[in-house]
Amino acid sequence: MLRSYESNIPGIEIILRRLKLFDLILTPTENEMVRDLVDILSSFETTTTILSAYKSYPTMSEIESMLHSTGTESSVIEELQHLLSEYLDTRFPITPLNICGFLLDLSQLKIDINRYLT
Question: Reduced to 3 states, what is the DSSP secondary structure of residue 99?
Fold first, then answer.
């Protein structure tokens, strides 16, 4: 949002003047602070994108739910689901470090963690 604001400052100021919303127009010093913030926060963009890979990859709960049989699959699919489910903990172990990261991630507060605490 700040990046969008930064690239449209002149147009935004014109619109605010026409609407007589002078108190919403930032000073040159405030606009410079916005530019500095954009520069600082841009350095975190790549890291945030990498750490937000959950948008591209399924979560463990999504994988587990796909491996539960609904009874409408063919026998081959049911067998595959069973085999994958049986070895899921071996192939994707959940370590104490994963649990600590999970507990510290505020976006995960709604998830029941009891099964990971055993």
Answer: helix
